[in-house]
Amino acid sequence: MSPPTTDAAILPRPGSSLGLASWFRDLLSVITWTVRPPPYPSVTLPRGDGRTVLLIPGFLAGDWTMSRLREFLSGLGYRVVTAGIVFNPGPTMRTFVRLESALLRFSEEAGPIDVVGQSLGGVFARELARRHPDRVRSVVTLCTPIRFPIITPLAPFARAFAPFHDSDLLARSRDLSQPISVPVTAIHSQDDGIVDWRQCVQDEAPACRNVCVSGAHSTIGSNPQAQIAVAMALGAETSSAKMR
Asked: Of all residues in the chain, what percent are helix, strand and coil, respectively (each to 5)?
């Protein structure tokens, strides 16, 4: 694998709302919500019908970081699965192959599945749908930047792992924001302390929606507002499938 041809991430400019302070706030949110997790939404939400949902964690994270979202969706009746990602080092070929194998395996068993990706995991989710539109029913992204290079205080970490990143994917980074052929719901937060929220907003289209919630980047999967948005997005696809 050759070295990447572009920078995947860059540091925020001086005076930006993103930086060490916003990163610290995000970390504080993780600590707070780990000690005292927020309650799951108590509102009535669309139920799952046993459909399979694949969860993909973000950069420097693993499947365990999405445990609250997994419990929430399981409680709604979805079959929630993962690809066994212990640590996501970024857009490496090894990580993508693992995710692609999981998608093909689960969709072979259950037909087209829904894919929910957090942060960088959403980039993987969109790419899986782009390459296998017949295997993906819908995509939901959580604070996922799709406009590169990503503006983030985590840029030094991205550069540290850059030698292992897939140069082909990075070379096409400008195309990653282009529409895909399956429904996409992009959930973002203007309180995001890790990435510029404007980079997480996709171009609106009949099958592409943007949903704004409040909350930190790293705890978005545990965020009740985001959980409701995920449930509504998946529920909308259930209704569409029944009408067809």
From this structure: 45, 15, 40
Q: What are phi and psi of 44, to 5 degrees?
A: -75, 125
Nearest to 158 by CA among 98, 71, 91: 91
**pLDDT interval class at 172 (50, 70, 90):** confident
| C-alpha closest to that of 71 among 218, 222, 188 | 222
State the CATH architecture for 9-33+51-238.
3-Layer(aba) Sandwich (3.40)
- The pTM of this model reads 0.92
- What digits encode the pLDDT tens for the residues 23-59? 999 999 999 999 999 999 999 999 999 999 999 999 9
Distances 217 to 68, 77, 173, 192, 210 between C-alpha atoms, Å: 15, 26, 21, 5, 16
